[in-house]
Amino acid sequence: MRFFITISLLFCVLLASGQEVDKLHTRNKKAIELYKEAQSLDHVGNYYKSYNLLLEALKRDDSFDEAILLTHQILIKRGELEKALQLYDEYVEEVDQQFKNRMLADAAYALFSEGKYEQAKNLKDQIEGRVLGLDAALFEIVTSSIDYALEGSANPRNIDFEKLPAPLNNRSQQYFPSITASGLLVYTVRYNQGRGDENLFFSQKDGEAWSQPLEISEKINTDRNEGTASISADGNTLVYTGCNAPDGLGSCDLYISYREGSDWSKPRNLGEAVNTIHWESQPSLSQDGRELYFVSARPNGEGGQDIYKSTKQNGKWMEAVNLGPSINTRFDDCSPYIHPNGVNLFFASRGRLGFGGYDLYETEQLGQGEWSEPKNLGYPINNHRNQVGYTISIDGWAYYSDNHFDGSSSLYRFKLPDDLIPKQLVDYKQGLVLSAADSTPLFSEIYVADIAKDSIRSRTYSDFESGRFNLVLPQVEGANLYVKKKGYLLYKEEVDALWRNGNETTTIYLQPVKKGEKVILNDILFELNSAELSKKATKELDIVVDFIKDNPELLIEIGGHTDTTGEEDYNLNLSTERAKSVLNYFVNKGLPKETFVYKGYGETMPIEEGISPKNRRIEVSILDIK
Length: 626
What we know:
CATH architecture of the largest domain: 6 Propeller
Largest sheet: 5 strands, antiparallel
CATH topology of the largest domain: Neuraminidase
CATH class of the largest domain: Mainly Beta
Oligomer: single chain
Number of strands: 35
Shape: elongated
């Protein structure tokens, strides 16, 4: 699934010569023959036989520039950088300036990739004039990154990296962690030092301790590869990568599964809106499970691997869109992580200023499809090795994996510095949904709406078996929580009122639908002396529309009420017109007109004394159940 990549794509581009055969700097036919054969072997990764052929070519013409350059590049690919530098010293007086510059650039980038920034800068600064085979943009990335890394590593952040304790890290390879708000860690395990099957495991955090890691589900893990998972912050939705499955569209596809009590539902391929015949992997779900960021190697992107996004609308995943050049570069961009606030995106890239390999960056969503300039997370969070597969807990810990020289990998974490913690924070709340009739647990939909800003801020579901739910939501004032279940009244309460005095758990009782029950809608507001619905009111009514669609057997009265401002007759007429406006809105939304009656009550049924805004309300009452 492309996790442990040791040779940078940028490095591969650097080491591609691109010199035409008819322009070779030699007339020795045998030397040309040997060079062409060595070049073919180099293209298929046979660096040892090609190297010996090049030595034979140089015996026939030791001023053969292309053979000298290719020998230098092959030594770098073989990991023999010192020998490559010796070759440069040996032939530096023989080669043309552009070949000399290319050898300096290749060696400088090799040193940069090993974290030897000072030595890399020394070679880079010797380059004068044109560099053979490198365009200006690529050369600018290389040289600027060397300077950037040298300066950044001289001013490191104060970071303490912690290896996660036992019983975690009990396998040879574990990587790509994803964590919920409640501390459930899901990650990939690969058996037999990378030569075996990949499966998903989980462990629950309790204080500073972790539970024994277990396989996530027999419904998900198979004898094929399942990995790189993302679990939503509420713990209800899982998206993961499955490779070579019978229902797959490409080599690796994205699959989705939903929590069902203590187990998971049968996984489902996300289909052609997300997957292609190409490679898709490395998903990241938004906190409510309705936005999916992922990586694809499909063509016609910005270049290499790109980051894409699909949005779930009306229960269906929409066609994935490329995040565009503000995020994606001409090289590989991958490993997205969308913070639970839905605003801050962390990702890895090889195409920006960095410290070598994949670096981590952070950007902020400014508007629809608009992102701020990505910011490098700095040294030593980033170094000359690959940084991919990060997830961030709501309390500001970054979880990741690191590779060891023996091929194994382990899970780690570090506390994000204050300047990297997203400004828009999130709250974590827990609750329980029960039937008011008999206190049995209820599976229900729970969401938080900020009606004033016309947005759903969070959405989750209570557990099938226990009725418990985990709610992750941005810190907003005045937001309402709604609980919806077919056969029960729509529940509404202010978020702050539900979790008073810092309590993190609350119990919500849903009233079964029955005659005479009322839903009071205080947010159905009107301008003074007007029956025209405000924009805020229509958003509140849209929530009621969904409730009525779920319960089509109801006969409903729409009751209008006013406060005591104005004459009694005037208030009665005004309340009737307002109730009629609500009826018309419902009908325009496709609800049958025969479902409703409407009536104005004026100021006759106040729920608070005096001139109170709460008296200016709409009530939806259940007259009968068909």
